[in-house]
Amino acid sequence: MFSEKDKYQIENHGLTLDKIENQMSLIMSGMPYSNLVKAATISNGILKFKESEVLDFINTFDQNRSKISIVKFVPASGAATRMFKFLHQFLNNYKINEESIQSFAERSNNQELTTFFNGIEKQPFYKDVLQKTTATIPTFNDLSSDAQHLELVKTMLSARGLNFSNYPKGLLPFHKYNNHVTTAFEEHLMEAALYASSNQIADLHFTVSEDHLEKFEKERSLIESRVKEKTQNSFNVSYSFQKKSTDTIALTKDNKIYKDANGDILFRPAGHGALLDNLNELDYDIAFIKNIDKVVTNKHQQNISIYKKLLAGILL
């Protein structure tokens, strides 16, 4: 079944033939369904506390946090491709000379597209996209509204523009404030200071793509002084990469290993479960785990920290 080239690529990827065969078997047979027993309810899988109990648990955590080691673990290797799927569909199928964007959205039942364009000027990345587009197209202001929107999307997603499609989600302009725009990366630092710090030092560990590491470090150098001034905390930021040995193969419709035009096996990064190895290599008393794009704006972070500290207090 496997050629010598296949065997070399598999072994060079940190995988074994047995693992690949198991992956193939799993893909062909499908994942088994879970047998649900009953709904989770209060006292049966769900905990409910009185306000006084909540305060006791939070106090337990706050009183002990200077004596324990804490880390915030953030899976951040994902690119933004799926976030802009509806815009890629728009670029691939919209013909400006044949219909309006509104009629296209209605015809293709693309409600996300309508919502996006109705609020595009409120998007945190709008200023950057507009500036880049007008610099590239001097006649931009003379274009029709539909043509302007088309060019803005091209600038956002294309490699010749801002290349947001291939940018890490954690480094995209994410939240817009009065005087500045933040990334999800910055919001994680802000949030960590509230509940994942010990002795005014917050440790954060991001799992990133090797291709994006330099970009994360550049962003950190730009924002760290601002975040430190706001939070009165220092930050230790470390990184790791998802192990290639956790990657998976893909199969064609006739259940053969999918290969690219050069005949090389296509290896795909596995899901978040693959990061258990990275988490297990960290040595801390408590680890808060939160995905890169699960962040809120400043005014909600205090409320988030209450529940995080409650969870840690229960754990302790």
Describe the structure.
By secondary structure, the protein is an alpha/beta fold. Helices cover 44% and strands 13% of the residues. The protein has twelve helices and eleven strands. Strands 3, 6, 7, 8 and 11 form a five-stranded mixed beta sheet that branches. It has a two-stranded parallel ribbon with strand order 1-2. Strands 4-5 form a two-stranded antiparallel sheet. Helix 3 crosses helix 12. The longest helix is centred in the C-terminal third of the chain and has 19 residues. The radius of gyration is 24 Å and the shape is globular. The N and C termini lie far apart (52 Å). 23% of the residues are buried. The model has no long low-confidence stretch (mean pLDDT 94).
Question: What are the key terms here?
Answer:
single chain, about 325 residues, alpha/beta, 5-stranded mixed sheet, two-stranded parallel ribbon, 12 helices, about 45% helix, about 15% strand
Question: How would you sum up this structure in a few lines?
Answer:
This protein has 316 residues and is an alpha/beta fold.
Molecular shape: globular
For the biggest sheet, the summary is: 5 strands, mixed
Q: Give Rg in angstroms.
A: 24 Å
The helix tally amounts to 12
Distance between the termini: 52 Å
Strand content: 5-15%
Element-by-element helix/strand order: HHEEHEHHHHHEEHEEHEEEHEH
Query: Would you identify the regions where 5 or more consecutive residues have pLDDT less than 50?
Result: none
Mean pLDDT over the residues: 94
What share of the residues lie within helices?
A: 40-55%
Strand elements, count? 11
> How would you classify the helix and strand content by structural class?
alpha/beta
